[in-house]
Amino acid sequence: MSGKLQHLLGRFRTVESVELAAVVATDGLLIESVASPEVDVDAVCAVASNGLAMAEALGREIDKGGAIQTLLEYENGIVLIEPISGDAMLLLLAGAREDLGYVRFLVAKHRDDMLDALSAI
User: What is the Cα–Cα distance from 108 to 106, expressed in whole angstroms?
Assistant: First the structure.
């Protein structure tokens, strides 16, 4: 896989609470990831693609357009899903809700670089 994409995903993992940073095909297949050893990456990626599909369907139903970013907040963390191309999405899993602002900042900062790295594969 792309060393550049791996490097970019590693930037998200520098945030202590980020347990998984992955680029996932919209069908749920893993393209590239960096994760804590305890994360079942393939299972999380497969389920997360359904989350993006749900957000897209809701956007169409309420006539608000396509999903820009989907954020799920849980008692013990967050899941952030952001489409980065028509075929792929960024998936972040973090154990602390307090890091949400910084994680969203990193996503915005590195989005174009991730698209470029993905295009190079």
Answer: 5
CB atoms within 10 A of CB 96: 15
Domain covering 3-119 assigned CATH 3.30.450.30 in the classification: yes
The CA-based angle 109-112-63, given to 5 degrees, is 95
User: Which residues, 6+ apart, have CB-to-CB distance to 12 below 8 Å?
Assistant: 18, 21, 34, 92, 103, 106, 110
DSSP string, 8-34: HHHHHHTSTTEEEEEEEETTS-EEEEE
Q: Left if phi > 0, otherwise alpha if psi is -120 to 50, otherwise beta: which for 81? A: beta
Order the strands of the 18-25 sheet from edge to edge: 30-35, 18-25, 88-94, 77-83, 70-74
pTM over 0.85: yes
pLDDT tens for residues 43-97?
A: 999 999 888 889 989 999 999 998 889 999 999 899 999 999 989 999 999 998 8
C-alpha R_g of the chain? 13
